[in-house]
Design a protein that fits this description.
Layout (H helix, E strand, L loop, with lengths): L26 H4 L3 H4 L1 H19 L13 H12 L3 H14 L2 H14 L1 H5 L17 H38 L4 E6 L2 E7 H20 L4 E2 L9 H6 L5 H11 L3 E2 L10 H30 L2 E3 L1 H4 L14 H23 L10 H6 L2 H20 L1 E3 L1 H9 L6 H13 L8 H9 L6 H9 L5 H9 L9 H4 L5
Parallel strand pairs: 3-4
Antiparallel strand pairs: 1-2, 5-6
GO biological process, one term: IMP biosynthetic process
InterPro entries: Fumarase/histidase_N, Fumarate_lyase_CS, Fumarate_lyase_fam, Fumarate_lyase_N, L-Aspartase-like, PurB_bact, PurB_C
Enzyme class: lyase
Length: 479
């Protein structure tokens, strides 16, 4: 319909137009997270937890008088979760508009399926177990387990594989270029040469270290009632070992049981995980800025076909490093959200407040921007060619970087008993500071130092391109 300005109101168009870029422009990249961190995925996980709790309580004699479910009945219940799709999402939405409570809506949805079970199974006890659904549970019992399951699956099945792909690409690039010499820059100034491979290996090593922390993350859960005391459980069925029942249930979901909570599981594991992912993001950001700088120095050339873009709207000669710039921006957004999640989720007023409810709905957004950055870095790296000649030219224009080697060799010679090696740092500073030194000037200086013959020959044979120490060998530390 027309808006007051006479324009079409975009909010009324069908299909709905996405407000944010993750569900709009960048949807194809982040779509795999929808199966884990969307509202629909959260509701499916809630349904899964409710179903498994029902099955858990109707086996092993936990609830006196509760029927034992048959194999077909258990399969039917789990099928309710497996078949959760667009029609079920719409139905659940209708229920929630009546209940105005998301977890209660899941409870009612499951009860409908219990009532309908005879249509599928014939004679069945399922319509008679509706009061066991959600028994002894507060909403947070369902929510904390659901979030743990969905975040775990998103990290393990989507985010970590993408992170491994990028880290492996950096490591491969490091190995291929392990011996390619490159002028280092400390404080932006020419410094002791390295190899391109060693510098990339440092970044791959850092990324993998953070990934190992993320891979070892604990995902905690609890199911202990309204204030964490098993109050309703113990008063209703005093003969059961409710801590053992809860532990078995939580660990059966593949989670770590948290024995001490308030109404909520304390979310500390989430804070720890998000801090580690944010730190990974920041290392990846460092990679993006370094590669961007190497591109600007001419050390990397970009293949336009691989970048898949027009370089500039007005300057046709340009191939802009947009993949790395896009990654930077998305990593910064992701880190901002992850930092907020990590800092706010660890606090809940007294036994419970609802600040976490809204906050946790942004977990998918935080991971989405990180995943989008990973995709851009992957594509950006795939479109790079190394220009070893450009690096060699830079090295040949900076012979003064050998000053470190010369003064260190002089110190070592003095320790070994050579005469005339006094004040090596000061003598090199006078030669090199604030000025460019070419090959001839450096060789003349070395030749006039009176060094022992073997030391002099080593230094005279040295060039900026060969002064890379153990850099090539260090790349072997990459697993």
């Amino acid at each position: 319909m027309p808006s007051r300005s006479g324009r079409t109101d975009l909010a009324d168009l069908t299909p709905p137009i996405a407000l944010g870029p993750l569900d709009g422009r960048y949807r194809p990249v982040v779509a795999p997270l929808v199966d884990h961190l969307s509202e629909a995925a959260l509701n499916r996980a809630r349904l899964h937890v409710e179903v498994e709790w029902l099955i858990h309580l109707t086996t092993g004699g936990v609830l006196p008088g509760a029927p034992t479910l048959s194999t077909a009945e258990v399969a039917y219940l789990r099928g309710v979760v497996d078949s959760f799709g667009s029609a079920e999402i719409a139905e659940l939405g209708e229920i929630e508009r009546e209940t105005l409570h998301d977890v209660k809506a899941v409870e009612y949805f499951l009860k409908r399926r219990l009532a309908a079970a005879p249509d599928v199974l014939g004679e069945t006890v399922l319509p008679d177990v509706t009061e066991i659904v959600h028994i002894f549970c507060t909403s947070e019992d369902i929510n904390n387990l659901s979030y743990a399951l969905t975040v775990r699956s998103a990290v393990g099945q989507v985010w970590l594989p993408a992170a491994h792909t990028v880290a492996d690409a950096v490591a491969d690039l490091a190995r291929v270029n392990a011996a390619v010499p490159m002028l280092a820059r400390t404080h932006g100034q020419p410094a002791t040469p390295v190899t391109l491979g060693k510098e990339l290996a440092v970044l791959a090593h850092r990324l993998r270290r953070q990934m190992r922390r993320i891979e070892s993350a604990e995902f905690l859960g609890k199911i202990n009632g309204a204030t964490g005391t098993y109050g309703a459980h113990a008063i209703s069925v005093p003969g059961a070992d409710w801590e053992a029942v809860a532990r078995e249930f939580v660990t059966g979901l593949g989670l770590t049981w948290n024995p001490l909570t308030t109404q909520i599981e304390s979310h500390d594991w989430q804070a720890e995980l998000y801090a580690d992912v944010a730190r990974f993001n920041r290392v990846l950001h460092n990679l993006a800025t370094d590669v961007w700088t190497y591109i600007s120095l001419g050390y990397f050339k970009q293949r336009l076909s691989a970048q898949g873009s027009t370089g500039s709207s007005t300057m046709p000669h340009k191939v802009n490093p947009i993949r790395f710039e896009n990654a930077e921006a998305n990593l910064e957004i992701s880190c901002a959200l992850l930092d907020t999640l990590a800092s706010t989720l660890v606090t809940s007023r007294l036994q419970r407040d609802l600040t976490d409810s809204t906050t946790q709905r942004n977990i998918g957004v935080a991971f989405g921007h990180s995943l989008l950055a990973l995709d851009n870095v992957r594509r950006g790296l795939a479109g790079l060619d190394v220009d070893a000649e450009a690096m060699a030219r830079d090295l040949d224009g900076n012979w003064e970087v050998l000053g470190e080697a010369v003064q260190s060799a002089m110190r070592a010679a003095a320790v070994a008993g050579a005469e005339g090696m006094a004040d090596p740092y000061e003598r090199l500073k006078e030669l090199t500071r604030g000025r460019r030194v070419d090959r001839a000037a450096m060789r003349e200086f070395i030749g006039g130092l009176g060094l022992p013959d073997d030391v002099a020959h080593r230094l005279l044979d040295l060039t900026p391109g060969s002064y890379t120490g153990l850099a090539q060998r260090l790349v072997d530390h990459l697993a």
